[in-house]
Amino acid sequence: MIFHGGETLDEIRERYASLLRSCANSRDLARGIQLHSQISSSAQLRDDRFLGNLLVHLYGRCGRPEEARRVFDSIPCPNTFSWNIMLKAYTQNGDLDQARRLFDLIPCRDMVSWNTMLDLFSLSSDLQSAQQSLDLMPVVDLVSFNTMLAANALCGHLDGVKKIFDDMPEWDVFSCTPLLEAYSQYGCINQARQLFRTMPVRNLVTWNALLAVHAVAGHIEEAKCAFDTMPEHDIVSWASLLNAYFRSGNIDLCKRCFKCLPCWNVVCATTMIQAYAQLGHIVDAEALFYDLPEWNMVSINAMLAAYAQNDRIFLAEKMLSKLPEANAATWGAMLHAYAITGHFDRAKQLFDTMPEKTLFAWNMMLQAYSTASLALEASRIFDSMPERNAASYTAIVAAYSQCGLTAQALDVFHSMPKTKGGKANNDNDEEMAWNGIVAACVLNKEIDHAKILFDQIPRPSVGTHNLLIQGYGQTRNLESARRIFSGMPERDTASWNAILAAFAQCGHVAHAELLFEQMPRRSLVSWNAMISMHGRSGRFHRALDLLCAMRAAGFQPDQVSYLSVLAACNHVGLVEESSSLFLAMAEELGGGSGIEHYSSMVDLLGRAGQVEFAREIIQSMPFVPDAKALGALSGARKLHVSAK
């Protein structure tokens, strides 16, 4: 049949089909609604199943599952494709209940039907339902296995990922990526490398996964090597390399990498904002933030955290007041800013007035009281919480432990539920909880109890090993620290830093120097540990040499670095050198000196008899002097009067 314009019915159907596909791909809902209206007004097209299926797909892609269902219900004889595309519309929009109901109604399920439900359970972290679906499937294909791999990786279940991978009759390049990601989460660098080497085919996604493994561990040499070997790069590759430089503390390389980006997105910009904040370069962080073409919650949170980290809480408040609208995540970020700066009254006031109290907000209040060692207030918040997760339990454990209430901390730890809502707990949650209770014992110097708990952990992570090494170092049990370090199946830079700190705390300067030279890679923490060791011992020249060496290695000194060198000056009474360092720090850190630096200068000047200069330092402080600074000045005055 020929219609107006000389088109046949098939040609009209194909034209509308092409337009609907285009609208779905671009998520152009307004244009899609117009096309739907035109199709509905045509007697020849309104009952067309092919176009009906495409309309269901369009509405699902545009976030309108209700409209998709109305179209689906109007299709005269839906086929299996119709059912599957409606099921996909529900899964794309996270409507698990409706998807379950529809799945039960499908008259003839195929592999797409089963895998779609499997994908939905996986994305919902409902591993129990996902496994039940997998067990009921008449046939399991490669897509099914890959979906389960991704689900276990998303939940941090390394054992689950490895078991599925080993049981698969065959695997492809998409099967390897979840296992690489799981290895990355647990710091299993060697296993990740070995898996990557055995892959017969690699694509950009797997290369990026390997790059991310090194980035998360802060292995800048390996990350750069992988980046240079990659056949092609995308923005994810560049973002991972930038993240590697940031995590290693090498801000100079961060800056260079950022300048070389062919194009940058919010993720890269946010990493750079965090790098500037770490250095105290709040002006540079601000300039980059306000230069962004658009903001998202990640960038907003990063900027708020940058203000809080550099004690500029009033600027965080000013920024929040200028935002066009604040949602739960924004309120949570501001709450976090108050919490980490110790403004508990403001945090409580904000929390009480929040229009929606999310779990994140509850946890922020809990962590705020925990950080301040206010166990009673933390306990009240914990008891009032409508829901809890592993972070909640970890925070209350920390609150009890910091107050020396180890028994209460253990009670809470053992009461932590293993499952919640039919979902398997994330392995990272389990690790967080174990680390919390081990850290509690370490904090209270109950290192023997920490070791007993450590031995009960099914698979101690690198982080848990590091905590125990720190504990032994703090109690000057160097032999036990070395034994734990030597027995680690995997080590990261934090492991080396922990054993380095143990040697330094025990006064084994020569061994610490040797270990520092042997480190496969160093971070800002490594350099600061060495500078601090020499600073405490009054070895000013060695501390200063290390400060220069870290700059040459691309690491910019931070407040901790300068404080350690100032301590060395203070230890031997080097007033002139200390004054020069103090001025250099103010210039390099962009005015990011902390109250400890001012107090150190006041103490040194006071003991050198330069009371007036010490008073000028106190008067120039950009914050209220603390008891240490005022006490140092008072002591200097008394000493000066006695000398007269």
How is the topology of this model organized?
Blueprint (H helix, E strand, L loop, with lengths): L8 H18 L2 H12 L8 H13 L3 H10 L5 H13 L3 H10 L5 H13 L3 H10 L5 H13 L3 H10 L5 H13 L3 H10 L5 H14 L2 H10 L5 H14 L2 H10 L5 H14 L2 H10 L5 H13 L3 H10 L5 H13 L3 H10 L5 H13 L3 H10 L5 H13 L3 H10 L3 E2 L2 E2 L2 H17 L3 H10 L5 H13 L3 H9 L6 H13 L3 H10 L5 H13 L3 H13 L6 H14 L2 H14 L6 H13 L3 H9 L7 H17 L1
Antiparallel strand pairs: 1-2
Helix pairs in contact: 1-2, 1-3, 2-3, 3-4, 3-5, 4-5, 5-6, 5-7, 6-7, 7-8, 7-9, 8-9, 9-10, 9-11, 10-11, 11-12, 11-13, 12-13, 13-14, 13-15, 14-15, 15-16, 15-17, 16-17, 17-18, 17-19, 18-19, 19-20, 19-21, 20-21, 21-22, 21-23, 22-23, 23-24, 23-25, 24-25, 25-26, 25-27, 26-27, 27-28, ...
CATH class of the domain at 1-108: Mainly Alpha
User: What is Rg?
Assistant: 30 Å
Supply the helix-strand structural class. Answer: mainly alpha
The overall pLDDT average reads 82
Q: Any guess at the CATH architecture of the domain at 1-108?
A: Alpha Horseshoe
Give the CA-CA distance, first to last residue: 116 Å
Give the biggest sheet. Answer: 2 strands, antiparallel
The tally of helices reads: 39
Parts with pLDDT < 50 across at least 5 consecutive residues: 419-424
Helix content: over 70%
Please give the order of strands in the largest beta sheet: 1-2
* CATH topology description of the domain at 1-108: Serine Threonine Protein Phosphatase 5, Tetratricopeptide repeat
Question: How would you describe the shape?
Answer: elongated
Beta fraction of the residues? under 5%
User: How many E-type strands?
Assistant: 2
